[in-house]
C-alpha cells in the first residue's frame, strides 16, 4: 500500500473514533516505517490545573490510538484489531502549552497478533515523554464488528 493510501486509511480511522475527534487528534505523518499522530494541547485535557500538565489518560489515548491505527496501515486489507495489551512507560511529564506527538510502528505481524512499539514526544523525538508497546489481536478480514465503523475505515475499497 502506498503512503498516500495509508494516510487516507489512517485519517478515515481517526475520523471514525469520537474520542479522537473530541481530543482533536490529527494525522501528522505516515511513512512505511510508521505513523505519527498529533494531540494538540488544550485546557480540556489538562490533568493538573496548577501546572497545566496534560492528563495521563489523554496521553494513553494518543498512544493506544497511534498503535491501533498503525496496525490498520500495515495490513493489505482492513481488519478489526482490538488492543490485547498496552504498556506505557512514562519518562517525564509533558511540558504545559505544547502539542504532543505519538509515533508507532508495527514490528511483527503474525496470523493472530500484531506487535507495535512507539513513543510520545513534544519537540524532539530523541527526548520521548513516554514509550509504548502494544499487542493487537487480528480478528480477520471477515470479522463483522461494527459494520458502520468498518465501512467508514475501509472507504473506497481500501
How would you explain this protein's 3D organization?
This protein has four helices and eight strands. The protein has 158 residues and is α+β, with helices and mostly antiparallel strands. The protein has one domain: Hotdog Thioesterase (Thiol Ester Dehydrase, Chain A). The strands form two sheets. A six-stranded antiparallel beta sheet has the order 1-2-6-7-8-5. Strands 3-4 form a two-stranded antiparallel ribbon. Helix 1 crosses helix 3 and helix 1 runs antiparallel to helix 4.
Keywords:
1,4-dihydroxy-2-naphthoyl-CoA thioesterase activity, 8 strands, about 30% helix, 4 helices, about 160 residues, two-stranded antiparallel ribbon, PaaI family thioesterase, 6-stranded antiparallel beta sheet, Thiol Ester Dehydrase, Chain A, hydrolase, alpha+beta, single chain
**Can you summarize the main beta sheet?**
6 strands, antiparallel
Number of strands: 8
Uncertain runs are none
Put simply, the count of helices is 4
Distance between the termini: 9 Å
* Relevant CATH superfamily: Hotdog Thioesterase
- Strand arrangement in the largest pleated sheet: 1-2-6-7-8-5
Elements, N to C (H/E): HHEEEEHEEEEH
Q: What is the helical fraction, as a range of percent?
A: 25-40%
Q: Which architecture per CATH?
A: Roll
Could you tell me the strand content as a percent range? 25-35%
- The overall pLDDT, averaged over residues, is 90
Domain tally: 1
Keywords: Hydrolase
Pfam families: 4HBT (PF03061)
GO molecular function: 1,4-dihydroxy-2-naphthoyl-CoA thioesterase activity
Protein name: PaaI family thioesterase
Amino acid at each position: 500500500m502506498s503512503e498516500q493510501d495509508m494516510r487516507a486509511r489512517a485519517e478515515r480511522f481517526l475520523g471514525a473514533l469520537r474520542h479522537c475527534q473530541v481530543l482533536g487528534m490529527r494525522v501528522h505523518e505516515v511513512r512505511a516505517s510508521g505513523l505519527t499522530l498529533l494531540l494538540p494541547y488544550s485546557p480540556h485535557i489538562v490533568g493538573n490545573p496548577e501546572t497545566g500538565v496534560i492528563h495521563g489518560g489523554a496521553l494513553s489515548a494518543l498512544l493506544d490510538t497511534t498503535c491501533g491505527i498503525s496496525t490498520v496501515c500495515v495490513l493489505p486489507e482492513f481488519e478489526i484489531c482490538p488492543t490485547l495489551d498496552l504498556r506505557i512507560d512514562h519518562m517525564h511529564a509533558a511540558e504545559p502549552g505544547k502539542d504532543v506527538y505519538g509515533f508507532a510502528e508495527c514490528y511483527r505481524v503474525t496470523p493472530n497478533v500484531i506487535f507495535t512499539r512507539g513513543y510520545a514526544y513534544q519537540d524532539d523525538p530523541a527526548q520521548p515523554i513516554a514509550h509504548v508497546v502494544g499487542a493487537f489481536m487480528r480478528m480477520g478480514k471477515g470479522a463483522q464488528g461494527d459494520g458502520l465503523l468498518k465501512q467508514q475505515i475501509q472507504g473506497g475499497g481500501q
